[in-house]
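Exercise: predict the fold of this chain.
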Amino acid sequence: MATNTDAVPAAGSSSRRKLLTGLAAGAGVVVAETLVQGRPALAGNDGDVVLGQTNNETSSTLIINSTPGSIGLVAVAAGAGKGLYGSGGAGSGVYGEGGSIGVEGTGAIGTSGGHGVKGEVFDSPTSNGVYGHAENPDGSGVYGQNDGAGFGVAGRAANGTGVLADSSNGTALAVSGRATFTRSGKVNIAYPNKTAVVSVPGGLAASALALATVQDTTGVYVKSAVPNTSNGTLQINLNKAPGSGTNPKTAHVAWFVVN
């Protein structure tokens, strides 16, 4: 799975901060002049937008800035307010479409009865549906938290890799708490048997590695764990049957398959 970072602008660059600061200051001057000098905010049939009022329309309002590399619309809020708020009935509150990034947000929040934030890519083979970037020692590029019983972060892929963990110099995957794997389990082998065959979810590739060990003190051990790639099973062989005819026992064997 490819992760495209070349087209992502450097978040927090000085030139970008200067541009946003200048635009915010300019917007503040326009608003201040309107309030202090009493300049009227024209509206109605002439097509102007009324500041501080509800503007009802039956068609879309389009703003075009023809200067390359510039910003089409700047919204600034003081204090803990929201710079821009979008609400959609059964659709999207805010929808963005761009050549490299659909919606780029610093401190962006999305709330919805459906998806809080949704990203989609259809035509680019290396672009990301949602991209997160951070440059600090304790934060996360993408962070997910679920206060219910669901997943904090979930990744699913029909044919590819559901979740990729990669690190050149650090830890690729850190798990704090229990970890569960569907390609693992426990099988019981009772006297007079000394073998067991288990089916492995997802099948077995030629690169599959199988591990098995006895979980009790029945006096036996696992002699071999043999993957069968043709039918996706794992045959576990003990050195002998557990117990005897007069004292039959059951060996509990745990198994685990990777790759």
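Check your answer against the key: DSSP finds one helix and six strands in the chain.
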